[in-house]
What we know:
Layout: E1 2-6, H1 12-22, H2 29-37, E2 41-48, E3 53-62, E4 65-73, H3 82-96, E5 101-107, H4 111-119, E6 123-132, E7 137-145
Parallel strand pairs: 4-5
Antiparallel strand pairs: 1-2, 2-3, 3-4, 5-7, 6-7
The structure holds coenzyme A.
Coenzyme A binds next to strand 4, helix 3 and helix 4.
Amino acid sequence: MIxxxxxxxxxxxxxxxxxxxxxxxxxxxxxxxxxxxSPLSSYVVAEEDDGKIVGYGxxxxxxxxxxxxxxxxxxEYRGSGIGKTILEALIKLAVVGGGKLINLDVRSSNEAAQxxxxxxxxxxxxxxxGYYQKPSEDALLLSLDLEEGRFDD
Length: 153
Ligand SMILES: CC(C)(COP(=O)(O)OP(=O)(O)OC[C@H]1O[C@@H](n2cnc3c(N)ncnc32)[C@H](O)[C@@H]1OP(=O)(O)O)[C@@H](O)C(=O)NCCC(=O)NCCS
C-alpha cells in the first residue's frame, strides 16, 4: 500500500533517487534541505509499506498563491495512480494553508503530467518560451483556482 506523508529531512536521500530518475536537471541536496526546512513550503512523499519512497511532490505558498515546484514518481511505479494521490494531497494541503490559486510550469512535451493536471481542473494560462534546459523547451503555465469550491472538503 502507498502512504502519503510529510517529507522529513531524513527522507532526502531517497527523494533524490526519485528526482534523478525523473528530471534531466535534478535538484541538489541543498535545494531539498532548504525546501523541507522552509516554513513557506509543504512537501510530501509517497511511501511503500516497507519504507521505500516511490514519489514526492511539493509547493511553496506565498500569502494565498501556491507554486507547485515538482511532482515525481519513480519510473517503474508510474501509471498506477501515485501521481494523482500526491497531487490530491498537495491540493488539500494548499486549501488548508489558505491557498487560493495553484500555479505550476510543465514542459510542453510532457503529456503525462499535463493530462494529470488537466484532469484536476488546471487551466492553461500562459507559456514561457525556452524556459527549460536539457533539452531546451517551452513551459506551459497552468493554474488551478481553489476558490471554485470543489476542494473544500
Ligand atoms: C507526471 C507523473 C508524476 C505522473 O505520475 P503517475 O503516478 O504515473 O500518474 P498516475 O498513475 O496517478 O496518473 C494520473 C493521470 O496522469 C495521466 N497520465 C499518467 N501517465 C500517462 C501517460 N503515460 N500518458 C498520458 N497520460 C498519462 C492520466 O491522465 C492519468 O489519469 P488516468 O489514469 O485517470 O488516465 C509521472 O509521469 C512522473 O513522475 N513523470 C516524470 C516527472 C515529471 O514530469 N513530473 C511533472 C513535472 S511538472
